[in-house]
Structures are given as structure tokens and as C-alpha cells.
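Open question from group meeting: does this chain pack into something compact, or does most of it stay loose? Before anyone orders reagents, we agreed to write out a predicted structure and look at it together. Recording both the input and the output here so the notebook holds the full record.
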Amino acid sequence: MAPTKSAEAAAAPVTRMGAGERRELVLEAATRAFARTGFAGTSTDAVAREAGVSQPYVVRIFGTKLDLFLEVYRRAVGKIAAAFRAVLDDGQFDPDSEDDWTRLGNAYTDLLADRDFLLVMMHGFSAGSVPEIGAAARGCMSEIFTIVTSTGCSAEAARDFIAQGMLMNIMLAMGAAEHLDESPALAALTECAFGEAMAVVSPPR
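C-alpha cells returned:
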């Protein structure tokens, strides 16, 4: 059956893109798809539909679904690592300064408006029984811990900082900010977890 005009129009911009742009388009589509349904529940066909390209095209660029997920996952972790490094690059971080910890925390909360990459990271943790994904997840935590402890803080301080970020991730994954009216306890925990970042994660009214 011949493609419809609407399908041709949707595909036309992709054909005019360069290889790098098409790759980026597929990675963004894969991030959205994996964020919704995780590694096990997402097929390369679903990613292709999200991107507006053919499934063989996705496979030709990235190989297997596992290869694609790992690239999307590492890309997500890279955003966090880059945000932290940008704060620490000036070399002025004092691990005893509450203001400096706030700066580092703000670098993370600024990313929370884009939930897809955070959900991909959570799906990666839950799919850790897949050996390659488990290794990537452990590498993620190791990298973030290394960056945080490069401030000169103690391992315990780094643990607490990372644990706060993980609590935020969990609250985002369960849609806590959208359902504060379900329980006073949920509202209190959510507001305590996010603090001033509630303005970033709360749905528009």
C-alpha cells in the first residue's frame, strides 16, 4: 500500500537531515519511549514509530535494542555528570559550605524539568538483572560518587547527597507532585524532598 501524504510529510524532514541529526532524533525518541515503558517493554519498532523512521533504520544505526538502551542510558547519566562538573570546574567548592552544596544540588534540580532522562535512569536500575545494564548502572553510581567525593567531602556526605537525589527520582517516577491531594503524608514528603525545586516539578495550574 502506498504511503499516505501525511506519512510522507512526516518522514520528509528526516530525509533532509544529516546523519548526526538523524542519530540525535532517534536518541531523543528512544529516550521518550524507554522512559514510558522501560527496557523490557519497549521495542525497536516502538522507537522507530516515535522517531518517524523505519525499524530497520534504527537497527542499522544502533544495532540491538540493548545497544540502543545502553547508549540512551549513558547519555542520561552524562547529563548529570556534566551538570556536576560544571559546578566543580572552578575549583572553589568548600565541602563545609552549605551554599556550595546548594549550588551542586541546584545543578541537579535544574535537570528535573526533563523527566524522561531521569525515568530512563530509573528503568536502568530496575533492569539491572540484564548483565550489561547492571554494569552500566553500577558504573553510573560509581561515576557520580567519584565526582561528588572529588569535592573533598566524606564518603558519608556524598552518600547523603546522592540519596537525596535518588529520593527525588523515586518521587518523580511515581508522579508524587501531581497527586499531592491523595495524602497529607505524601504531600509533606514530596515537599520535603524537593524543597524549593517544587516549582520545577509541580504541574502547571
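Observations to bring back to the group:
The longest helix spans residues 65-88.
The domain at 5-173 is CATH 1.10.357.10 (Tetracycline Repressor; domain 2).
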